[in-house]
Amino acid sequence: MANAADEEALKDLEVEMIDRFGLLPEPTKNLVRITLLKLHAEQLGIRKIDGGPQGGRIEFAAETPVDPLTLIKLIQSQPNRYKFEGATLFKFLVPMERPEERFNTIEALLERLTPKTA
């Protein structure tokens, strides 16, 4: 899975695994979702994402296609939920007790950070 070059290749691999082995167990589904998150994060110039029960953080590379204004608007609209720590670390304080909540929160946040094409 780690060798999948893009989302389409990963989805093809997932379909092939289902064809061969049947429905995927939850840990395997989670692995697919994690790999998709890594691919998306890489496209956004994100070095690392951490998520836990109380929230998480995103570490950006020096060069990122993410519009800084998007991050600033998030912080201004919800200062108790989002904040910067240093030049490249973005923290989000969101309760995420269950793994499903973590996936959903991080996926939604990455989607918000993805630059929109005209």
How many domain modules?
2
CATH topology of the largest domain: Aspartate Aminotransferase, domain 1
Mean pLDDT, rounded to whole units? Answer: 90
Number of strands: 4
Instruction: Output the radius of gyration.
Output: 16 Å
Could you name the ranges where pLDDT drops below 50 across 5 or more consecutive residues?
Answer: none
Tell me the strand order in the biggest sheet: 1-2-4-3
Percentage beta strand: 15-25%
**Number of distinct helices:** 4
Helix content: 40-55%
Shape: globular
Backbone structural class: alpha+beta
The biggest sheet amounts to: 4 strands, antiparallel
Distance between the termini: 32 Å
CATH class of the largest domain: Alpha Beta
Which CATH architecture of the largest domain is right? Answer: Alpha-Beta Complex
H/E element order? HHEEHEEH
- CATH superfamily of the largest domain, by name, is Transcription-repair-coupling factor, D7 domain
Pfam families: TRCF (PF03461)
InterPro entries: TRCF-like_C_D7 (IPR037235), TRCF_C (IPR005118)
Organism: Pseudomonas savastanoi pv. glycinea str. race 4
Protein name: Transcription-repair coupling factor
